[in-house]
């Protein structure tokens, strides 16, 4: 993991960072005789995390009652974006009356799965209630600032990033004449970013657009805007490249180089809404072309250090926006309408470094259900802290978990909180680690997924401490409290 992309997650935002470079790479190599078929496949997010990136999906409230859908959403991805529920028409349908229930539901789902949230979007010409469009010009700035302040304050500390401004450009690179542009000129963008920073000092602030993925007039316009905002010291952290691609239009020109030039301005870049549509019906040739597009996007992001991650615009064709907007087109996502994995999934899996064995990845449906909890467990946490100055030092922690129940545990997650002042500094061994604030989640690798009845497994990591050293006080194994 590169230090700068790790920094993208850990310093200001204190959100999830999968620390499993070594661990996740071990998980992708099936070990003969030890790997446990499909249960051992790393998720797309685990693979991405091993490269210092996240892999995420958009989702939407109506789909959250589909339990087969949420099972994959919750397990395969490390990041989610609400497709609609944080937009202006949902969050402030009438002036100064705010509604956060739907957005809160997505944030809470993310929390329960240790996922980060890309929040979308504060200022956009679309899905804008009519009261905004019909405001007198003189009132637009105050309404925009109030909207940003209220919404970003509500979600402050809970979201990794905000698409502060969405789709500011026309195809030829001129500014779109939205109600905001008409009232404030292009300065509305800087004003919006400043208001967002004031409301949420920790979220990464983005401008997001489509058809800017490859070089061209629109991408040049975004580049000029980004350079100028950076030069003025406007709080801009990243540029989102939506990535709504179509196989009949060709792959964007020089995508990697395009991302890199934004990164070279000192910005993060992210693929925020990736999908690759085709003219229906789907066939093997089109699937193969689509797979190449997904591979190319993953490769471009992997090649750019400051590309922090990739989000697909929902993961299944069942819930894609494409067919309703582009008549006769669709099949844009890596999972089909029945939640079965398509060749595009395998392409992404491989591009992220996954190794396809004969038993995996299966092109079938959802992954196995979550492991059953043990009825009893015991944890021995032994650490050897050392001191490197007054009140600071490092430590190595070794953890042994014993399954004290009469049945084996098949697949495990150990959760605990590091005492304040402590951090993980190394990817650890014999487990994959996810860190969110002080909360640590250690998950089995393929070769140690099973803890036999009355058997044990051991794993560990290195860390830093400050203040005075103490060990974590409590542990749960598959959500059962251990002694
Ligand atoms: O996925 C969203 C879909 O459900 C909405 O009907 C649509 C309406 O504007 O917006 C879709 O999401 C868009 C995103 O917010 C911005 N970039 C383009 C996305 C696809 O239209």
The percent of residues in helical segments reads 25-40%
Poorly predicted sequence stretches spanning 5 or more consecutive residues = 1-39, 359-369
Report the sheet with the most strands, covering strand number, pairing sense and barrel closure: 8 strands, parallel, barrel
- Helix count equals 15
- Supply the helix-strand structural class: alpha/beta
CATH topology of the largest domain: TIM Barrel
Indicate the topology.
Layout: H1 3-10, E1 17-18, H2 21-28, H3 44-49, E2 54-59, H4 67-76, E3 79-82, H5 88-91, H6 101-112, E4 116-123, H7 130-133, H8 137-155, E5 161-166, H9 179-184, H10 187-199, E6 204-209, H11 217-231, E7 238-241, E8 244-246, H12 255-263, E9 268-279, H13 284-303, E10 307-312, H14 322-325, E11 329-330, H15 343-351, E12 377-383, E13 386-389, E14 392-403, E15 409-410, E16 413-417, E17 423-424, E18 432-436, E19 439-443, E20 450-451, E21 456-466, E22 476-477, E23 480-481
Parallel strand pairs: 2-3, 2-10, 3-4, 4-5, 5-6, 6-7, 7-9, 8-9, 9-10
Antiparallel strand pairs: 1-18, 9-11, 12-14, 13-14, 14-21, 15-20, 16-19, 16-22, 17-21, 18-19, 22-23
Helix pairs in contact: 8-10, 12-13, 13-15
The structure holds ligand 9MR.
Ligand 9MR is lined by residues 83-84, 126-127, 166, 210, 242, 273, 321.
Short description:
This protein is α/β, with parallel strands linked by helices and 483 residues long. 30% of the residues lie in helices and 24% in strands. The structure holds ligand 9MR.
């Amino acid at each position: 993991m590169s230090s700068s992309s790790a920094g993208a997650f850990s310093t200001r935002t204190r959100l999830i960072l999968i620390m499993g470079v070594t661990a996740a790479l071990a998980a992708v190599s099936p070990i003969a005789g030890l790997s446990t078929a499909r249960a051992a496949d790393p998720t797309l997010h685990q693979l991405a995390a091993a490269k210092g990136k996240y892999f995420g999906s958009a989702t939407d409230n109506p789909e959250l009652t589909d339990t087969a859908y949420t099972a994959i959403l919750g397990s395969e991805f490390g990041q989610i974006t609400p497709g609609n529920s944080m937009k202006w028409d949902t969050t402030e349908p009438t002036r100064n009356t705010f509604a956060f229930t739907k957005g809160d539901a997505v944030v809470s789902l993310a929390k329960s799965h240790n996922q980060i949230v890309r929040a979308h979007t504060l200022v956009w010409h679309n899905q804008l209630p009519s009261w905004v469009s019909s405001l007198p010009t003189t009132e637009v700035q105050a309404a925009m600032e109030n909207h940003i302040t209220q919404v970003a304050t509500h979600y402050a500390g809970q979201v990794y990033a905000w698409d502060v401004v969405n789709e500011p450009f026309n195809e030829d690179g001129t500014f779109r004449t939205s109600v905001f542009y008409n009232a404030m000129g292009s300065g509305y963008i800087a004003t919006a970013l400043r208001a967002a920073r004031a409301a949420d000092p920790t979220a990464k602030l983005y401008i997001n657009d489509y058809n800017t993925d490859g070089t061209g007039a629109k991408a040049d316009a975004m580049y000029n805007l980004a350079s100028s905002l950076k030069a003025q010291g406007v709080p801009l952290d990243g540029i989102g490249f939506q990535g709504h691609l179509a196989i009949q239009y060709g792959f964007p020109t020089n995508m990697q180089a395009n991302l890199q030039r934004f990164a070279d301005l000192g910005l993060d870049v992210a693929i925020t809404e990736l999908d690759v549509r085709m003219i229906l019906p789907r066939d093997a040739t089109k699937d193969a072309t689509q797979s190449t597009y997904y591979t190319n996007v993953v490769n471009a992001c992997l090649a750019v250090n400051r590309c922090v991650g990739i989000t697909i615009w929902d993961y299944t064709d069942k819930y894609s926006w494409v067919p309703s907007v582009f008549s006769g087109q669709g099949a844009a996502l890596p999972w089909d309408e029945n939640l079965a994995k398509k060749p595009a999934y395998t392409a992404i899996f491989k591009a992220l470094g996954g190794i396809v064995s004969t038993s995996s990845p299966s092109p079938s449906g959802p992954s196995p259900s979550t492991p059953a909890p043990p009825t009893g467990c015991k944890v021995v946490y032994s650490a050897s802290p050392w001191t490197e100055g007054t009140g600071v030092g490092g430590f190595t922690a070794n953890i042994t978990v014993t399954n004290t129940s009469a049945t084996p545990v098949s697949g495990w997650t150990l959760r605990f909180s590091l005492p304040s002042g402590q951090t993980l500094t190394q990817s650890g061994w014999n487990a994959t680690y996810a860190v969110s604030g002080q909360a640590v989640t250690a998950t089995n690798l393929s070769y140690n997924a099973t803890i036999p009845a009355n058997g044990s497994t051991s794993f560990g990591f290195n860390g830093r401490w400050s203040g005075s050293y103490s060990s974590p006080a409590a542990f749960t194994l598959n959500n059962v409290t251990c002694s």
